[in-house]
Write a structure and sequence with these properties.
Structural class: mainly alpha
Distance between the termini: 58 Å
Order of helices and strands: HHHHHEEEHHHHHHHHH
Strand content: under 5%
Number of helices: 14
Largest sheet: 3 strands, antiparallel
Oligomer: single chain
Number of domains: 2
Strand order of the largest sheet: 1-2-3
Number of strands: 3
Helix content: 55-70%
Radius of gyration: 25 Å
Shape: globular
Amino acid sequence: MRPGNNVLANQAAIKRTVMHTRATAFQAHRASEVSSCDPWLMFTVIALLSLSVVMVYSATIAVDSRTLDINFNPLIKHLLHIGLGSALLFMAASIRLNWLAAASKALLLIGLLLLVVVLFPGVGVEVNGSIRWIDLGGFRFQPSELMKIIGIIYFADYLARKREDLHLFKVGIINIGLVAGAIGVLLLLEPDFGTAVVITTAVAGMMFLAGVRFWHFLLSFSVAATLMTWIMGMAPYRMARLLSYQDPWADPYGNGFQLIQALIAIGRGEWFGVGLGSSIQKLFYLPHAGNDFLIAIIGEELGAAGIFSVLMLFALLLFRAFVISGRALRLGQRFSGFLAQGIGLLFALQAGVHIGVNTGLLPTKGITLPMMSHGGSSMLISMVAVGLLFAVDRQSRPQPGGQRCKVPDQK
């Protein structure tokens, strides 16, 4: 064989080796990309869900007043919700975020339509004076829970598209205010004042972080706070709750009953609790112990240490959401970054309101503890939100060759 042919053969062999090495490395990277995720975020989710199972079981296992049997039904339903929610989490974590951004307007229309449909006589189910649920044959779906994540998706897309014009009052305030106002009005018609406050505050936080002018933001926030205060004053039952929150002992068997029972539970727990399963307040004293007042039972059985642990888990979730958001924004993935911020704020605000209500820092409202309270709609939507957070994390990680994954369709 001629020397020239030897050189060509060697070059071909080297080329095949390099190509094989690159292919092997790419396949290994793809395999690791599928399984890789933010370990601290994964730890937080697993910890919250694990504590959720234990505390919902403890809070709802009280003897059934009709059959005098131990009540396992809430635990079984809760486990089913977590199982279905886990499937939705994996689906959401696999979605292409540029597709989600493109569908944001359609999702908003669907969410608004559901909020209207639930108000129709014969469609919405009334529970405790509120029409918030649609009966789907054994499962009650709450459109307001779905609107939480739909609202975050829509406003993340809007802020990403209009990022360069957010300094304009019409773009940065008026347009957002009209959509948020429409959502708020429909929620108040149910009525669901707590969800309206959570969504509005989360959107306000997203606006501030996206770069809306501070004076515009301050003005709009002041107007929104004034309107909410006025709305509370217009409804006698809301005003009664506000007054009872300030002095629940003035009406201990009426509007102040729930808060007093929650405070008794937390007071009994002191620093380290009375022991898991040893709560007295869950025995028909504290209504909705497994959902709206779950943190009170945690405080009674696990003490202030238990409440502090839950606070730290949600603080860690918020921190990881902002870390993931920062990485996405540095890559120019505006929608992904704003979406992660919105999800983190949504979880933090809802958990904060839940804990504030249970401890008497905020007026009594029916707000669940995300990823912990007993309730199908809340758990499913919380898991979808976490799945989207994992999607942002996955799609902003390094690609083969040390490059970053850049989603071309994002603003």
